[in-house]
Design brief:
Largest sheet: 9 strands, antiparallel
Number of strands: 11
Low-confidence stretches: 11-36
Helix content: 10-25%
CATH topology: Cyclophilin
Number of domains: 1
Radius of gyration: 18 Å
Shape: globular
Order of helices and strands: EEHEHEEHEEEHEEHE
Strand content: 25-35%
């Protein structure tokens, strides 16, 4: 089974081609695809182990995909899924990264998530959950303490912090593609780095 769900397409294509012993069967794309809607795709996501992705681009081309494993069923993880899939109409797609903190130093991190160009207002209530702390590169965490205004913003840490002095409100970890984020950090203008597409991976 192979499936990615991307905000750009608003549909997920599940490719399932069962093998037939001793026989090669030609199959058209239409024959091999089952098309499901946004809400159907989100319903089959395992909330205890969701893999999201961000495709980053700059200089008029897509540079790579970042896979992020979200923390088990938390308000921030659920909101991140909504903004990666565009299920409620809003999406991280076509947003730009905003700022680099501590560039070339321990604790270097990049800020993104301003989907509404007004700060990144939350889509869900974000209080009442406990989040771990981490100072490791690849950490996905809260973008700003003012969750009422900036609750959809996020930080991706690209360099370990000194003495493992961690970030609070951690709700995910980059599984692959951290080098893409690091390349973006070193691009001449971080505000020209775009989330070209985003979504969730259904075949985890």
């Amino acid at each position: 089974m192979l499936a990615d769900f991307a905000a750009a397409h608003r549909l997920a294509f599940l490719v399932s081609v069962p093998p037939v012993a001793g026989q090669v069967m030609p199959m058209t794309v239409q024959d091999s695809l089952n098309v499901i809607t946004v809400s159907e795709a989100v319903r089959v996501v395992d909330p205890s182990s969701t893999l999201a992705f961000l495709d980053l681009g700059w200089g008029a081309s897509t540079r790579g995909r970042v896979h992020i494993r979200l923390s088990p069923d938390t308000p921030r993880s659920r909101q991140f899924v909504l903004l990666c899939t565009g299920e409620r109409g809003h999406s991280y797609r076509n947003t730009t990264l905003l700022k680099v903190f501590n560039k070339d130093k321990p604790g270097e991190r990049v800020l993104g998530g301003d989907y509404d160009k007004k700060g990144g207002a939350p889509l869900l209530p974000l209080t009442g959950a406990q989040y771990p702390q981490s100072g490791k590169a690849g950490t996905l965490c809260l973008g700003k303490c003012d969750t009422a205004t900036y609750g959809a913003r996020f930080l991706i840490v690209t360099r370990d912090t000194e003495n493992d002095n961690g970030w609070h409100n951690v709700f995910g970890k980059v599984e692959s593609g951290l080098e893409v984020v690091r390349e973006a950090v070193n691009y001449s203008d971080i505000t020209k780095v775009t989330v070209v597409d985003c979504g969730i991976v259904l075949n985890q």
